[in-house]
Design goal:
By secondary structure, the protein is an alpha+beta fold. Helices cover 47% and strands 22% of the residues. It is globular and about 35 Å long.
């Protein structure tokens, strides 16, 4: 499957990834769990349960624009694992508005 992922931190602050294949959903979950902990992400949810989309958005937010720009290997991992969890060909992670679109 061909994937196209865009991570946006606002106008003219977008990072685009195109790739084929990816990782397993379990590998992706483990990677996001690790990054969520390392980045000390904090998500307030009414149920207390953190969903996969919350982890993806929080990791992007706490990692920040600079990490996507300065650490391309990490950014590619983020893209690959996001695609593995969400299972979509086209994904937009809008960090500024804290939303994910397909």
């Amino acid at each position: 499957m061909q994937h196209h992922l865009i991570v946006s931190f606002g106008k003219e602050k977008e990072f685009e990834f195109k790739f084929t294949g990816g990782a397993s959903a379990e590998e992706a979950r483990q990677w996001f769990d690790h990054e969520f902990t390392v980045l000390e992400c904090d998500v307030a949810t009414p149920t207390g349960k953190i969903l996969a989309v919350d982890r993806i958005l929080s990791v992007a937010k706490y990692a920040g624009e600079n990490r996507f720009r300065d650490q391309p290997v990490w950014a590619e991992q983020f893209a690959k694992y996001t695609a593995a969890i969400l299972g979509r060909e086209l994904i937009k992670v809008d960090v500024e508005h804290y939303s994910i679109g397909y």
